[in-house]
Amino acid sequence: MEDSWPEFSVNDALGWLLYPRMVAEFPDHVWIATEGDEVIARAFSLPFALHTEARGGVLPANGWDAVLMWAFSDQRRGVEPDTVSAIEISVATDRQGEGLSARMLAAMRESVRAAGFAELVAPVRPSGKPAEPDTPMAEYAYRTREDGLPYDPWLRVHVRAGAVIDSVAPLSMTVSGSLAQWREWTGLPFDTAGPVQVPGALVPVHCEPERGYAVYVEPNVWVRHPLG
User: Fold this and answer.
1) What pLDDT, on a 0 to 100 scale, did the predictor assign at position 2?
2) How far is CA 98 from CA 40, 48, 153, in A?
3) For residues 140 and 126, is the Cβ–Cβ distance under 8 A?
4) Which 8-state DSSP code applies to residue 152?
5) Which of 181, 73, 161, 52 is nearest to 110 (CA)?
6) Strand pairing partners for 206?
7) How confident is the model at residue 126 (pLDDT cuts 50, 70, 90)?
8) Residue 78 has what DSSP assignment?
9) Which of 56, 104, 113, 163 could form a disulfide with 158 if both were Cys (CB 3.0 to 4.6 A apart)?
10) Strand (E) positions, 108-212?
11) What angle, rounded to 10 degrees, do the helices at 63-77 and 13-25 form?
12) How far apart are CA 172 and CA 92, in angstroms?
């Protein structure tokens, strides 16, 4: 399925390592929507233990990356999960704007509830944030419209479905690479020190030409979906 993820985002080291294992090891937490033989949307989630003594029910600052690590670590050690986190909901590029993301979220909520979990959480990647890369996420996440719903379209879908905004995950995903890699991923020169505006990025990428690398630290927004 062709989706709209920017090229650099699929080079998150943890995602690159663990994404292929989700389908094999957590098949009950994978959903696809089809039309005929065509896949038009997909969704992934992972079960993990949030309410342990060490984690204390607090959603982690390194959101998306943390959930991937926790879920596979818990599975390996036989820790009973008590929470499910969305990992991705994507719609084919030619089918966006049809409400499929909301339908996939609804299917995920219902499936997680039916499995006996009391809560679904999600480190949301706000869809409108790339248009404002310099706006702090703590400011953007809590911006609302006149009707009180979130300003951001994807956050708005979650809130309409019953979620509440919990917190900002300031380092939810980290993508580091050589200057050559960033040039390949983005088509940009990456020859100037400091912040670089990259299409599709939620915040600027930090470039260090003298040291030969650039790093992107993406903030997400934690939302909680009570399912009781």
Assistant:
1) 84
2) 11, 31, 13
3) yes
4) S
5) 161
6) 195, 215
7) very high
8) T
9) 163
10) 119-124, 164-178, 194-196, 205-208
11) 50
12) 24
d(CA 93, CA 104): 15
Alpha carbons 39 and 33: distance in angstroms, whole number = 6
Beta bridge partners of 44: 30, 88
74: which 2 tokens? 């818990």
The pLDDT tens digits of the residues spanning 188-197 come to: 999 999 999 9
Which of 75-109 are b and which e, b meaning 16 or more Cβ less than 10 Å from the residue's Cβ? beeeeebbbbbbbbbbbbeebbeeebbbebbeebb
Residue 46 token pair:
């992972």
* List of domains in the chain: 7-173+219-226 (3.40.630.30)
CA distances from 129 to 42, 56, 61, 158 (A): 22, 30, 18, 16
pLDDT at 4 over 90: no
DSSP 169: E
> Considering the chain, what is the average pLDDT of its residues?
97
Mean pLDDT of 96-116: 97
pLDDT digits (tens, 9 = 90+) for 63-89: 999 999 999 999 999 999 999 999 999
Whether 188 and 195 have beta carbons less than 8 Å apart is answered as no
* d(C-alpha 71, C-alpha 176), whole Å: 23
In total, the chain counts a number of residues equal to 228
Tokens linked to 143: 């911006």
Which residues are CB-contacts of 223 (< 8 A; sequence separation ≥ 6)? 121, 122, 124, 155, 158, 159, 163, 164, 165, 166
In sequence order, the β-bridge partners of residue 109 are none
